[in-house]
Amino acid sequence: MPKSFERTRKAIAKKKGPIESLHQYSRDSKRLHRAQVRDEKLEKIAASRKKTDRPYLERATFFQEAVKQNEGQPLSMDVIHELIKTFVHQYDEELNEVKKARRPGRPASAKEDLLKVKVDKLQKEYQNGFLTPVLDTEDNAGLLSRWEGSWSYLTTVKWVRISSAGQVQPSSFPPRGEH
Questions:
Q1: What gap in Å lies between CA 87 and CA 119, rounded to an integer?
Q2: Is the peptide bond preceding residue 55 cis, with omega within 30 degrees of 0?
Q3: Are 67 and 141 in contact (CB under 8 A)?
Q4: pTM of the model
Q5: What is the rounded distance in angstroms from the CA atom of residue 38 to the CA atom of residue 36?
Q6: pLDDT of residue 178 exceeding 70
Q7: Are 128 and 122 in contact (CB under 8 A)?
């Protein structure tokens, strides 16, 4: 959490005394305002970053659960493909429920549109190369099973892109650009 506003407020209070004694257009009040705007900007950036990181954390959690169910042992390529298909089609039931709930002749709801976009994006990614942790080596499976949920730890895990055709390409984490 940004602290520049608190630091600035404390420095001004030390120098001048109570903050209430400042007038609206003084240098110190402008300094306080800049610090507050800076803190708000940093919080906004952090929130947007967290929002973009969430899908990758969910993906890592999904594959971590699969490795834990296998007791930390590496998985075969067939099992990995089945896990990817399960992950790609995880929203299908919810999408079908939303479609059934919609009355005939009505346009799609915003939720239905978002689910369609998610499913299409995941299917396209699987065709081009789905980003997954390396699950077929014992070292990486162990690393993933010990993961506690932090973003920074995921960089130590090796990642690959697996396409629906079966091609495996090494990849880096965090991913750069769209695939």
A1: 10
A2: no
A3: yes
A4: 0.73
A5: 5
A6: no
A7: no
Rounded mean pLDDT, 107-130 = 89
- Tokens 């420095």 locate to 11
Structural contact between residues 167 and 129, judged by C-beta atoms closer than 8 angstroms: yes
Residues 6 or more apart in contact with residue 81 via CB below 8 angstroms: 162, 166
> Which residue has tokens 């890592």?
60
Per the CB < 8 A criterion, the answer to whether 167 and 116 are in contact is no
Contacts of 117 by beta carbon, 8 Å cutoff, 6+ apart:
none
The pLDDT mean for the chain works out to: 85
Cβ(160)–Cβ(134) below 8 Å: yes
CA 102 to chain centre: 30
Q: Which of 9-23, 26-40, 57-71, 143-157 has the lowest mean pLDDT?
A: 9-23
Write out the two tokens for 131: 């980003």
Separation CA 139–CA 72 (nearest Å):
9
Give me the DSSP letters along 86-130.
HHHTTTHHHHHHHHHHSPTTPPPPHHHHHHHHHHHHHHHHHHH-E
Cα torsion through 59, 162, 134, 91, rounded to 10: 20
Tokens 């007038």 locate to 23
Tokens of 178: 């769209």
Helix (H) or strand (E) holding 159: strand 159-162
